[in-house]
UniProtKB/TrEMBL annotation:
UniProt key word Signal: yes
Domain called Peptidase M28: residue spans: 97-185
Keyword annotations: Signal
Organism expressing this protein natively: Mytilus galloprovincialis
Listed cofactors: Zn(2+)
Designated name of the protein: Peptidase M28 domain-containing protein
Keyword Signal among record annotations: yes
GO MF terms held by the record: metalloexopeptidase activity
Signal peptide span: 1-22
Biological process terms in GO annotation: proteolysis
A Pfam family recorded for this sequence: Peptidase_M28
Protein family membership: Belongs to the peptidase M28 family. M28B subfamily.
Domain of life per record: Eukaryota
Length: 347
């Protein structure tokens, strides 16, 4: 499972370059097979499996010692009566509640569209997040304490209204509801309660994991839209020089913002690992808020960079980076993104 190799970048970054152990691929594979290999949609016929996945995440957060809670919210455009739930786990650092705390968030959505089993999208992201939690706990038990607090969130209702993969996808159709409600209803009250006036200073950044398992060393397995060649000439040249192999993780961030510090730290951690076989390709975007881009043509090009929960953090100008295998631009997922064949066969 190549996700485990890419996770070393995340571990090295989050754990401040202490010795990082190999990822427990057995744990991740078992999590995916048992809880993230079938449809997790809000329609009634899928709710039993989705509920089991949510409860598993909650139980794992608790088992690994996180302060754990549900964030319950309603989305009126989906249902006037049904509640939805994201799962939140907090690993308090020694700086918790102080102005010098630098909070890092790690998030991954656990729901799916109803047409898919959702193994890569996004069982892989949730399993990766849980492995980070497991390693964090293991390090704490061995006396390695973090100074800074970490917040882990498994978002519900990310896929509601998602139109990606269609030719006429527009941002208003992509609701990303769970992270939107998390930011509006949970995060600020929690910060004010625990940090008071220090709130603006304590958010260091957020990492979103969404479709991170697909690794393909076949030539021409990676597709790149023509418009990207002009927008990201260095990245395009790098992928081209490798015969368009899908053997890299995409690092997506906004260049004019504090995302750049988060991205630079992540890249530095990756270089320190000394594993050049597993590449990171940077895709720096030249905007602050997607909603403020005046050109509809530019928005249509950039919509592919807004397809996960980082987009809601960007809209309120919180630093965030998105790590992804590029989803429907690579290998089997070109046909299987949001389709039945995103199943255990893609592992």
């Amino acid at each position: 499972m190549v996700t485990s190799v890419f996770l070393h970048y995340v571990f090295n970054f989050l754990f401040s370059l202490h010795c990082v152990k190999s990822a427990d691929t057995k744990y991740m594979e078992t999590s995916i097979r048992n809880y993230f290999s079938n449809t997790r949609h809000h329609d009634p016929e899928y709710q039993e499996y989705k509920y089991a996945a949510k409860e598993y995440i909650h139980g794992e957060f608790l088992r690994h010692g996180l302060t754990t809670e549900y964030h319950t919210f309603q989305e009126q455009s989906v249902s006037n009566t049904e509640n939805f739930q994201s799962v939140i786990g907090i690993a308090k650092g020694t700086n918790f509640g102080k102005a010098n705390d630098l909070i890092i968030g790690l998030g991954a959505h656990y729901d799916t569209v109803k047409e898919t089993k959702g193994v890569d999208d996004n069982g892989a992201g949730v399993a990766a997040m849980l492995e980070v939690v497991r390693q964090l706990t293991d390090r704490n038990r061995n006396g390695v304490k973090r100074k800074n607090t970490m917040i882990f969130v498994a978002f519900d209702l990310k896929e509601y209204g998602s139109c990606f993969g269609t030719s006429d996808c527009k941002l208003p159709d992509v609701q990303l509801a769970g992270s939107r409600h998390f930011l509006k209803e949970w995060l600020l009250p929690w910060l004010l309660s625990n940090y008071g006036k220090a709130v603006p200073a304590v958010i260091h950044g957020v990492i979103i994991l969404d479709t991170v398992m697909n690794y393909n060393t076949s030539a021409r397995s990676q597709t790149i839209p023509d418009a990207f060649r002009t927008a990201f000439p260095e990245t395009y040249a790098s992928v081209d020089s490798d015969n368009f192999q899908g053997d890299f993780l995409n690092l997506i961030y906004r260049k004019p913002t504090n995302d750049t510090y988060l991205a630079a730290e992540f890249l530095s951690s990756g270089r320190d690992l000394g594993k050049p076989k597993y590449e990171i390709e940077s895709l720096p975007l030249n905007f602050v808020k997607f909603s403020e881009i005046p050109s509809s043509d530019e928005k249509n090009i950039l919509i592919n960079f807004m397809r996960s929960d980082h987009g809601n953090f960007w809209e309120i100008d919180l630093p965030a980076i998105w790590l992804t295998d590029s989803a429907d631009f690579r290998g089997d997922m070109i046909q299987c993104y949001h389709q039945e064949c995103d199943n255990l066969q893609v592992m």
